[in-house]
Design goal:
Layout: H1 32-50, E1 55-56, E2 59-60, E3 62-65, E4 70-73, E5 76-78, H2 83-104, H3 107-112, H4 114-130, H5 133-141, H6 146-171, H7 177-185, H8 191-211, H9 213-219, H10 222-225, E6 236-239, H11 241-244, H12 269-272, H13 293-305, E7 312-315, H14 317-322, H15 326-333, H16 336-358, E8 362-368, E9 375-376, E10 382-392, E11 398-405, E12 411-412, E13 417-420, E14 425-434, E15 442-452, E16 458-467
């Protein structure tokens, strides 16, 4: 039976698994949260671009010298053995993210995430060259001309310069930036330095110039699991549906009650300013990065039509349901999970701070000579050979004196005094002897006593002395 004669026939549909993205033209916005966003942009970028140029003790203040395996952070010198501090930093970052998310949603995404920060910077350049939203749309729809080509070329040139400067600065944290600048000026940049400058610059250019919201929506995993850290007392960007609906256009100053309308005039500006192109009036969506641009523009519209602000605002689900005041919402923010995150965070920060403060400037590792466990030397004395790896974790030279203890007559048969240069790791071979008959056959506990003349501290490292049978 044909489909025309069978009303129960199922209509076939072709569903595409790929949906092309529509280009988003975010509208510029002014307001409280926009100002805070630019404060964060300035603060983070002044730190990022400026810190490599600061000097400390006649060297770069912050330098991650992978070649010599030293990290310099102003007066702090860290070695691979200090990996625990990197672990602590990662734990602090994770707990901070959990805390901020539990309190105020995607606060990191909306204000401090590098993707957001560089997108703001690139869009600022775009607006200065091509104009605001309407002008950019007209320019893209217009036929190619000399004026259009010139604007596009200027925009991409400025983008590339900013991206390359960003890549250069990034590499400057791992190679002394003044040496790096001299190498660039003399065309003597090494292959790896060239690669990383171009790679990081290209990533910045692509992510902030072209991909933008696509990174937040499809590439960033945080958008997918953020809901696991939300609860009904988490501050989120919220549209007041009860107050705003039903939406509709009206004249300025019109009484919405008389028109049987809500406060929303359906201007669509909240969608136009959104960097991810969503409509906040449809409720919380994973694409929302919490930038609050919709709050700024909606408050501006409410001012113009003579309505109270706050149609779109930061609030909580429980606060909206119960019509709580701002004070009540803030009071409920201090709930058990927030206090728990805060306690753990403060405890870890305090522990790492104390550990860094008490960290010794001299470290010693004792390694037995693997070539010979023990040997008999002149006059029947028993000799063991050890290698002492001494690490100067300070930027001052250290004068040290080595001694031994563990048995009567045990003494050091090699040089006892050494000077270790700043940040030097020095390995020295030392010989320890005991008189004949002083110890029975077998292994015996002994200690190396390393005296730091600069601080007067004494480091004791245990080892074993072996007497052959």
């Amino acid at each position: 039976m044909s489909e025309a004669k069978n009303p129960a026939a199922v209509e076939e549909k072709v569903i595409s698994l790929y949906q092309s993205s529509k280009k988003i033209y975010p509208r510029s916005v002014n307001g409280l949260f926009a100002k805070w966003r630019w404060v964060v942009v300035w603060a983070t970028q002044l730190a990022f671009y400026g810190l490599p140029w600061l000097e400390w003790n006649q060297r770069q203040g912050i330098l991650f010298d992978l070649e010599s395996r030293r990290f310099y952070i102003f007066g702090l010198v860290l070695y691979p053995q200090d990996f625990i501090y990197l672990t602590g930093l990662l734990v602090i970052s994770a707990l901070s993210l959990f805390l901020f998310t539990a309190v105020a949603g995607r606060l990191w995404c909306g204000y401090a995430c590098p993707q957001t920060v560089y997108s703001e910077m690139f869009m600022w350049i775009e607006r200065r060259v091509e104009g605001d939203r309407a002008a950019r749309i007209r320019l893209d729809k217009s036929d190619m001309s000399g004026a259009k080509l010139g604007r596009k070329a200027l925009k991409h040139l400025l983008w590339l310069l900013l991206a390359l400067w960003t890549g250069f600065t990034f590499v400057g944290y791992f190679t002394p930036i003044r040496e790096l600048a001299a190498a660039v000026a003399t065309n003597a940049l090494g292959p790896w330095q060239t690669f990383w400058v171009l790679f990081y610059g290209f990533a910045t250019y692509g992510n902030a110039g072209f991909m933008r919201e696509q990174v937040c929506k499809y590439m960033c995993p945080y958008a997918r699991f953020q809901s696991a850290m939300f609860d009904k007392d988490t501050m989120i960007v919220t549209y007041d549906t009860e107050r705003g609906e039903p939406r509709g256009a009206r004249k300025k100053g019109a009484d919405p009650t008389a028109l049987n309308l809500g406060s929303c005039i359906d201007c669509g500006l909240c969608v136009q300013v959104c960097p991810t192109g969503i409509d906040i009036r449809n409720g919380l969506q994973y694409e929302c990065i919490g930038c609050a641009a919709c709050i700024d523009v909606c408050d501006e519209v409410m001012d113009k039509v003579g309505y109270p602000k706050g149609l779109v605002k930061y609030s909580t689900q429980r606060g909206m349901d119960n019509k709580w005041s701002r004070a009540q919402i803030i009071r409920h923010a201090f709930r058990p999970r927030v206090l728990l995150y805060t306690s753990f965070l403060l405890a870890i920060v305090l522990a790492i701070g104390i550990s860094l403060t008490l960290r010794p400037e001299l470290r010693v590792d004792v390694i037995r000579d693997r070539g010979a466990l023990a040997r008999m030397v002149e006059k029947g004395q028993i000799e063991n050979v050890y290698r002492l790896n001494m690490m100067n974790a300070s930027e001052s030279p250290l004068n040290i004196k080595i001694g031994v203890s563990g048995a009567n007559g045990m003494y050091l048969a090699s040089d006892a005094e050494y000077q270790i240069a700043p940040t030097e790791v020095r390995s020295v071979a030392v010989r320890v002897r005991v008189p004949p008959g002083a110890l029975a056959s077998g292994s015996h506990e002994m200690h190396f006593e390393i005296h730091n003349a600069a601080t007067g501290t004494l480091i004791s490292e245990a080892s074993t002395f072996i007497v052959p049978r």
